[in-house]
Prior knowledge:
Heat Shock Protein 90; alpha+beta; Helix Hairpins; rod-shaped; binds adenosine-5'-diphosphate; 3-stranded antiparallel sheet; 5-stranded mixed sheet; binds magnesium ion; single chain
Amino acid sequence: MRSSRPLSIETRIKVILTAIAIGLTGLTVGTALTQGFFERTGEARLLLETAKSAASGLSAAQVEPLLMKLGPFWKEAPPGVPAETVHSSDGKVWRFTLDRSRIWSALVHRQRYVLVAGLIGLLVAVELAVFLAYSLTRPMKILAWGCEQMRSGRWVRLPTLSRTPYELEALNEAFNGMVEDLKRWQDFQKQAARVERLAALGSVAAAVAHEVKNPLASMRIHLDLLQGRLSAGEKESAAILGTELDRLNQTVSQLLSYARPRTPLFGPVDARELLAWIASMTATPCRLAGVQQFWGVEEGCPFLWGDEQQLKQVMLNLVLNAVGAQPDGGSVRLEARGEGRNVSIRVSDTGPGIPPELLERIFDPFFTTRPEGTGLGLSIVHRIVEGHGGRVNVETSPQGTVFSLLLPTAPPDKKES
Ligand SMILES: Nc1ncnc2c1ncn2[C@@H]1O[C@H](COP(=O)(O)OP(=O)(O)O)[C@@H](O)[C@H]1O
Ligand SMILES: [Mg+2]
């Protein structure tokens, strides 16, 4: 069996409209010609009838000139053809038949303008059909293109078409709405997967940290007890041991605070105080790394609604990351300003940026690229900001990185009212 492609809508519309145009033109011109034909034959018949009745009282010689006036549409009938007859009083008979082809050619000549107008009308109608078919099917072609793009994993937004019929415009909008919903759904799934991962890792981390913390504390106590009995050389080794134990303890505490966060205490937080605190806290690490620090809060910036301690931790993690990313110096800029019912806080640096392939993973717990890192800083930031009903956004390039936080100014239920 031969599989043939069905006719496209565009071709169908063109064929139907062209057929209608041809039909209408044919009907108009045909009506005009037929009407003319009947008028002409009527006039010719009337002339013949008049000649017939006049001839019945005249001789053949008198009838001859009368017949000359019959006009161009009667011709002598050949024998055997049905004909109209004229009889003279002395018995001569003339046979006439209508010269139809002459009538038609006279008509065509007379109606030539109608014919030309009909032909032009036909051409215009065909052009219109082509244009209409194109403008009706173009949005559908664009829609098909959009679906094809989506199928191959490329998110597209269809352009808004001007002078498109309402239904097709609605189809276009529905498609764009569907794409946005799908995108949101995908983001939500990614988020949900991250939360799940965090929860699983959190419970493992909490169990391990808990097991490690007690032996660490006991090791520290026994090391302090031993200090008194050691020689000068041994004391130096014990001091190193102590520093390492403290570092280990700090990591484990961080792990625990990540895995088992304390219940947040929400209240109004002044963004200016928050930034001033963080600037003074990080002044020394900045100076040591040769990083210049700038900070500013927009005039009239509203208070945040959050847990001050947690927000301090968020800011500390972000600023320490920014400093850590610039070991050879650079700058860190802290800015806060009101944005509708939220406060936007930006931490920007002039460091080397985050490679695109790592960007997806930086909020994952234990993901780090620093030898001394724990990989918990950003996952804590993410969790705290989420807990505040806010959002974290990262923009990064080889010229620097900007972490933006959007934090609410009121508790969620108050915001609604
Ligand atoms: N401002 C920044 N510039 C460049 N890279 C960054 C920045 N902040 C975070 N990162 C990247 O994200 C990773 C994870 O950060 P984080 O969760 O704070 O863990 P850690 O600081 O312990 O490495 C870092 O190891 C680093 O690769
Ligand atoms: Mg960090």
